[in-house]
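Handout, section B. The chain below has 174 residues.
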Amino acid sequence: MLSLHNLEKNKASTHRKRRVGRGDASGMGSYSTRGIKGQRSRSGGKSGLAVRSIKSYLLRIPKVRGFKSLQPKMAVVNLEDLEKNFSAGSTVNARAMLRADLVRSITKGVKVLSLGKLTKNLNVEATAFSKKAAEAIVKAGGKAVVVGPKKIEKDKPVKKDEVKAKEEVKSEDK
């Protein structure tokens, strides 16, 4: 039966390799199919001859696809991991999670997610909680405490009208 693994190559499809520059008797002798004189007839002549357009240059550059966020990502811990690694009534903070090998780094904070079930009452201290995770911790009899870096609010730009109103109030007080 004819199948992909036992197909044979057509004999006429195989061509002999051109032996360029092997003397006049080879049929490719003398100028070795390069023509007479000129930049392209010499070694290294083909590469730098044509002036490339920007489009062809851009097409040759490898593209970096996708998007990489510059915002640091918090380490993630699930409720099922807390259930397995900590005993009831214990306080679980970022350092305890690091010691239990639940997270690799705590420098960017730790977020607790709600995957799995929690039956033990744990006092969990983390940078952030998902809503369901916080509810599950409280429901099991524990506490979900947000600790860690707090967002610093940037100074809001003050409108000209507000500045004038404040100045008028000050002048009336005097």
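Note. The two ends are 107 Å apart (CA to CA). Compare this with the example in section A.
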